[in-house]
Write a structure and sequence with these properties.
Layout (H helix, E strand, L loop, with lengths): L7 H10 L3 E5 L3 H14 L3 E5 L1 H6 L2 H12 L6 E8 L2 H10 L3 E5 L5 H17 L3 E5 L18 H9 L4 E4 L13 H11 L3 E3 L7 H7 L4 E6 L1 H15 L4 H4 L4 H29 L21
Parallel strand pairs: 1-2, 1-8, 2-3, 3-4, 4-5, 5-6, 6-7, 7-8
Helix pairs in contact: 2-4, 2-12, 7-8, 10-12
Length: 302
């Protein structure tokens, strides 16, 4: 299909259809390609996203052009998102590069400041033709000091949505890089007050049953990072276990190329397998294909 410069049509389609978009954190061509290939197999839209640390190593323009090129080679919608943007500079840099959506992470800030930034960034993102995600709490990292998991206040979540956030990220029990079960009763209360699209972080560790049960509450985006990075390590480990063609044929450059190609193929396959599982988990169970929301088409701004 094509690259979606604005993620809002994808968000609206997911919300209306009771499905969620897997948002895969990627930092290389091989990871991005594996995820896009999984989306093509599933015939579902996909969000690729970058951490702030990734765009410090390679500019947002590099990621944006890479993802656009990959989108041109598949028949499904592909969009690009900034995950955990911490300041105006990062957000604007990604919007200028052509990201489809951006996140503002208000963790640690007074809620009034997060609310003020939400209103300001909503204007900027929407004027750029992109979506805005906002969180006000920490999702925690096991073993990290000063970063405990918190819980979303439903009333505050509703205020973020009213201030202009297209997506509100909810802390309802999931943690980054950890197995978790969701507080579905809290999620239900948040959904009742927000009446709009919600996001779950720490998707790698959320129990599959909870992911399914979260969909009716307006969850339209689930972040998946740690599972992919584990897949990358497993992919390279599988390659390392293969016979080394360089040892048996040390003078031929083709042996080196074969070794490298095998490594990339194992990496892509490992990422593709993990990504494929999330497409299955985040699409409503259906016996009738019509219950699966149709693929949206990009909106053209005059």
């Amino acid at each position: 299909m094509t690259f979606f410069p604005d993620a809002r049509p994808l968000i609206r389609a997911a919300y209306a259809g009771g499905s969620a978009l897997p948002a895969f954190n990627v930092c290389s061509l091989e990871m991005a390609l594996g995820c896009v290939q999984a989306a093509e197999t599933a015939q579902r839209p996909v969000l690729l996203q970058t951490y702030p640390a990734d765009i410090e190593q390679a500019s947002p323009q590099v990621f944006a052009q890479m993802v656009r090129a990959l989108a041109d080679e598949v028949s499904v919608p592909v969009a690009l998102h900034l995950d955990h943007g911490r300041d105006l500079r990062q957000v604007i840099a990604c919007l200028r590069a052509g990201y489809s959506s951006v996140m503002f992470d208000g963790q640690g800030l007074p809620f009034a400041q997060t609310l003020q930034m939400t209103a300001r960034l909503a204007e900027v993102a929407h004027a750029s033709g992109a979506a805005l995600e906002v969180s006000a709490e920490s999702f925690g990292v096991p073993g990290a000091t000063g970063n405990p998991a918190e819980s979303t206040d439903p009333a505050q979540a509703a205020q973020l949505h009213a201030a202009g956030a297209d997506l509100v990220a909810c802390a309802v029990g999931s943690e980054h890089a950890a197995s978790s079960r969701l507080d579905l009763s809290l999620l239900a209360r948040i959904a009742a007050q927000v009446q709009g699209p919600l996001v779950l972080h720490g998707g790698s560790g959320i129990h599959p049953d909870d992911l399914r049960r979260a969909l009716p509450y307006g969850v339209v985006k689930v972040n998946v990072g740690s599972a992919l990075y584990r897949a990358v390590r497993q992919g390279w480990s599988a390659c390392a276990a293969l016979p080394n063609p360089i040892q048996s044929n040390p003078v031929q450059s083709s042996a080196i190329q074969t070794s490298h190609r095998a490594g990339y193929a194992h990496l892509r396959a490992a990422v593709r397998e993990v990504a494929g599982a999330y497409f299955q988990r985040l699409t409503p169970a259906a016996t009738d294909p019509l219950s699966v929301p149709p693929l949206p088409t990009p909106e053209v701004t005059p």
